[in-house]
## 1
Amino acid sequence: MDSISSDIRYTDQVFKDLHLDGMQILSSEFFDCVFRHCSFVETIFQKCRFINSTFQGCDLSLAEVPESFFSSTRFENSKIIGLNWAQADWAISSLGKSIDFIRSTISHSTFIGLNLKGIQIKECIAVDVDFREADLSQAEFTGTDLSESMFSKTNLSVADLRRARNYNIDPGQNVLKGAKFSLPEAMSLLYNMDIILSNGDP
């Protein structure tokens, strides 16, 4: 399709090369839809629903999603920079899978306080992302750059951070039970602990 309008239900549609920068889409629903190489920079999706949909090679930088709902929505090779995910409607998202990011850039985004159990953020650039107070249990961060991202009172139990890099996670301020890390990156966990490291010499 070559356009998106408000108050429309779309099912099994493929949207390709759309440029809707700065537009507002209100109360539309997308079921089993695919967005390919679309630009939604500063687009406002208000009270929209995305179910089993995929964004491939899209740009959603500085988009807004107030009261929008996401279930089994996947972002691949996309830019989702500066998006405040806390604006979305997460009231029933805990009942199923919500969002995943694969080989995407999600820098300067906010997930503060959200229940994102089992989320995949794989092979991504996630610089200066706010994960404070979020439930990221069983999340997968493999291969992701987490430079300057914030973790505090974050549940990372059974999360997979193998091959993740540049993270600064304080074990005393976060839940890490059963989390997986790989060396040498995992050495950064020790920097926040009140211990003295030695090479064995007196």
## 2
Amino acid sequence: MGDYCGRILIVDHDEFARAEAVRVAVRLGCEPSAAENAELMLERLADERPALAILAVELTGAMSGLELLRELHDRYGDGLPVILVSGERTAPLDRVAGLLLGADDYLVKPVDPGELLARTRRSLQRSGANVGKANGNGDGHGTREPLSLSPREREILLLLAEGKTQKQIADELVISPKTVATHIQHLLAKLGVNSRAQAVAAAYRQGFVGSDVVAHALDDVLVGVE
């Protein structure tokens, strides 16, 4: 899996903030899994321990980010790094309270993307995650060797990055869904990943698509659709 660092959970009702956190996860070689509220995230949590969570304190739904932090620590242990972000509870006492509840960091919105990247990398490194090296200009793939993909594989990878389903890809390329599935399996093997979300992240890191495409394409993946 190379420098794949694991899954980052992202929970924020602010679509722009979610997209920024997704870009950070992708640049660091992690798989983003995001939702707009705690309930949606809890419905699709896997047994596998995530690498980190980025949670807004203020969430829509019944649970707050602080409550979700406690739930995640109950499930995965207190060692799971959690970064809290808030645009309302920004006083020093609020930040201290979040840290005392077990947060690894507490950031005030609007969060500068560069700062979020640096803080997330630091938290991942402290927890022992295998963090990818994102370069300073935001490309996130500057030192990687290019993949040897066939023209058809590149075509399918780009369509995956655009959020297309297997059936939609088959219709667009006028090939059978079974053929698309075979190409996707070959792509996953070459990329060293196991899911469409990881494939989209890898497409960005390899320079096949830009971060704007990733943020849009992962809109389905963010809520766990494969």
## 3
Amino acid sequence: MTAHTGVDATRIEALFEEQAGYATPKLGVRGAVFDDADRILMVRETVDDHRWTLPGGWAEVNQTAAQSVVREVFEESGYVVRATKLAAAWDKATQGHHPVPFSITTLFFICRLEGGAPTTSLETSEVGWFGEDAIPAELSVRRTLPRQIARMFAHWRDPELPTEFD
């Protein structure tokens, strides 16, 4: 990794020091929340690139993936949602994201808006609703790709679409 990234070997070793046991993928969750105007909820991250993404993060120990996405959406946006469909399970390495040192699978859920109000957090600086033709150009492609958002719109319009995976 040092040879291909230029990052000091000590820093790369530190990435793996806290990892124990059998190597398994990390599990992320993203919530595709839609309003009555068929707009999708997005948040502007304060961590890393300060760009727009679907709300989400890491799945937590002792929470189901659906519980994790509900928590993440609330923490990052202030909205209360209910996960209604697992739309996709995509491996970051096969989707065209920038390479990362660990295997990551992200679960994308369609979520129904149930309440709350737009509220930023330590992780987000803005909360907004966007139509399919108005997705922000400043997209955090480290987290969510344009075609993944397009697929979430497709799943919203047609709930009978099967779950996508790679």
